[in-house]
Amino acid sequence: MTFLHANPLFTRLADAERILVAGAGGGFDIYSGLPLALSLRHQGKEVHLANLSFSALAGLPAEDWAAPDLAVITPDSAPHQSYFPERTLAQWLRLHGHPATVYAFPQTGVQPLRAAYRALIERHDIDAVVLVDGGTDILLRGDEAGLGTPEEDLAGVAALAALDDVPHRLVVSVGFGVDAYHGVNHVQVLENIAALERDGAYLGAFSIPRATREGALYLDAVEHAQQHTPEHPSIVNGSIAAAVRGSFGDVRFTDRTRGSELFVNPLMSLYFAFDLPGLADRCLYLDRIEDTQLIRQVHSRIAEFRDTVVTRPPRRFPH
Questions:
Q1: Which end of the chain is flanked by fewer CB atoms within 10 Å, N or C?
Q2: CA–CA separation, 160 vs 158, rounded Å?
Q3: Please, are residues 197 and 189 in contact by the beta-carbon 8 Å criterion?
Q4: Among candidates 236, 237, 239, which has minimal Cα distance to 263?
Q5: Sorted alphabetically, which InterPro entries does this protein's record hold (predicted)?
Q6: Quick count: other Cβ atoms within 10 Å of Cβ 291?
């Protein structure tokens, strides 16, 4: 049991020396973990970054692969590719004097993803992994009214759930509310968090204040990414960054949201933290995706599960 003044997430990581912070859902998800990773580095921890990638990794030369399905991305990787969040982050890290390597996993099924995680964990003798989701669909167990886009997120959860020789495996979710545009019912997200609390798997929540060093650096990193990927900026991190700045309501930060009404609000800047094995235990279909080799198998297995399950009806916030 911890004290109120001690954050349970950082308490869990207090004795960890080499920590992997990994983006779960592809795209710019690793940016969602940047404030946490920077805070851990500022505490003297050795922190490595990885991301499940939507980038075109197949064209990378052989020397850029540390292991099957584990690419090593630097600021100079694939200069011909315009969309490459991992490289863009590596460039920002170099600008700020941080180690400028970001590992990338291609989209695969659970088995190869687990092997890639294992290779990375062994490469750096990792003793803690924090899986980060920009959004909340990683918290859905399968019987909700809508699941958002859970395939990559839950492939990561399943991959890490079996690596029980890693002392600490955690999940953090940031960007509460952003998945509403993918059909996620956030009352059901809160219901799931309550259940995880009862199970002892919820580690509490804390904000990313812009007045902190990590908050200011995060805002700078998101702005840098938007400038270097103008044709496809991150809506999730743009929303989180807007919330960190104190913006509210229908905030415009990219033409990609034209025609949609956003609801940027302070809840988007909160980290919700969880024990990964406890979260995995509540997923109703994790066993169905366990033996997958391809990401399309993960998609089809979840779709097959959804055809058989009785879903919980969506609920509205009281007002």
A1: C
A2: 6
A3: no
A4: 239
A5: DUF1152
A6: 11
Each of the 319 residues of the chain gets a pLDDT tens digit; together they read 778 889 999 999 999 999 999 999 999 999 999 999 999 999 999 999 999 999 999 999 999 999 999 999 999 999 999 999 999 999 999 999 999 999 999 999 999 999 999 999 999 999 999 999 999 999 999 999 999 999 999 999 999 999 999 999 999 999 999 999 889 999 999 999 999 999 999 999 999 999 999 999 999 999 999 999 988 889 999 999 999 999 999 887 766 666 677 889 999 999 999 999 999 999 999 999 999 999 999 999 999 999 999 999 999 988 7
The three-state secondary structure class of 86 is helix
Strands, E, within the chain: which ranges?
Answer: 18-23, 46-52, 65-67, 70-73, 102-105, 128-134, 168-174, 202-207, 270-275
Q: Of the candidates 131, 154, 105, 150, which has an alpha carbon nearest to the alpha carbon of residue 289?
A: 154
Query: Which DSSP category does 9 fall into?
Result: H
CATH of 12-216+267-308, picked from 2.30.30, 1.25.40, 2.60.40, 3.40.50, is 3.40.50
Q: Where are the domains of the chain?
A: 12-216+267-308
Q: Is 15 exposed, middle or buried (0-12, 13-18, 19+ CB in 10 A)?
A: exposed
71 DSSP assignment: E
